[in-house]
Amino acid sequence: MRANTTDGLKAIVADPAGAVIGLDFDGTLSPIVADPAAARIAPGGAEVLTRLGGLIGSLVIVTGRPAAVAVEYGSLAAVPGLVVLGHYGLERWEAGALAAPPVHPGLDEARAGLLALVAGLDGVRIEDKERAVAVHTRQASDPWATLEALAEPVAALAASAGLTVEPGKLVLELRPPGIDKGVALDAFLRERAARSVLFAGDDLGDLPAFAAVRGSGLPGVTVFSGSPEIEVEADLVVDGPTGVLELLSSIADAIEKETAG
Ligand SMILES: O=P(O)(O)OC[C@H]1O[C@H](O[C@H]2O[C@H](CO)[C@@H](O)[C@H](O)[C@H]2O)[C@H](O)[C@@H](O)[C@@H]1O
């Protein structure tokens, strides 16, 4: 284990009240599945987060999903103290209340343009998230070639609509600019006056959050929820959502042991 991993985990366990644990949703808490609407938290996930939420200062999910969707698919409504930052930080869900800015004016153009682009493309799916719109190629006969073929026209559409392209696992998303998971996590660390941080993610959209952990100056750990689809540099690599939940359980065990001892 790298030195900063050990230091970060030790700091979380020694001072759980000052800890922020940040988690991505898809691919980190929820296994990747073909249909985005069928994604659900891995078995036992809500229980692990409920336990951890009662032990640490701040538990936050930072996701590309709408916050309410992550709460629903994760069965997370009762997790103590949980904050969910949806749409890469545009939205904030906390204690059942959602705060969100108005919908970006470019979304209508993006939605119509994407529908026209993918008309007739077999297996290509549009996910309309109200504040963003995504095109998925996972169910196409050649998912990677289809993704590559869409990259340029999707970038042109985003530029015309005043949106940014967020690439991910067999997905291109058009969303409002000016925020990412790094900006969102950095602001959250400041808000909570964090004294340590861990962030776990699995995709390109999580890289700014990993950079925020490294740039925070805090004892911190980046965790890659590993999968064969992409490689991401992180302090710790675990085996997908099951590995993430095992890690979180082991942190909860260590905190309880420390508190009891
Ligand atoms: O920030 P996240 O919580 O990781 O969300 C990123 C995107 O995840 C979803 O797409 C991914 O998961 C799907 C379900 O497993 C999978 O079918 C797809 O191929 C993946 O890219 C979600 O559908 C997007 O809206 C999120 O932005």
UniProtKB/TrEMBL annotation:
Keywords, in A-Z order: Hydrolase, Magnesium, Metal-binding
EC number per UniProt: 3.1.3.12
Keyword Glycoprotein in annotation: no
Cofactors: Mg(2+)
Gene3D superfamilies hit by this protein: HAD superfamily/HAD-like, Trehalose-6-phosphate phosphatase related protein, domain 2
Involved pathway(s): Glycan biosynthesis; trehalose biosynthesis
Catalytic activity: alpha,alpha-trehalose 6-phosphate + H2O = alpha,alpha-trehalose + phosphate
PANTHER family in the record: TREHALOSE 6-PHOSPHATE PHOSPHATASE
Record family assignment: Belongs to the trehalose phosphatase family.
Described purpose of this protein according to its UniProt entry: Removes the phosphate from trehalose 6-phosphate to produce free trehalose.
Name of the protein: Trehalose 6-phosphate phosphatase
Organism (species): Streptosporangium longisporum
Organismal lineage: Bacteria, Bacillati, Actinomycetota, Actinomycetes, Streptosporangiales
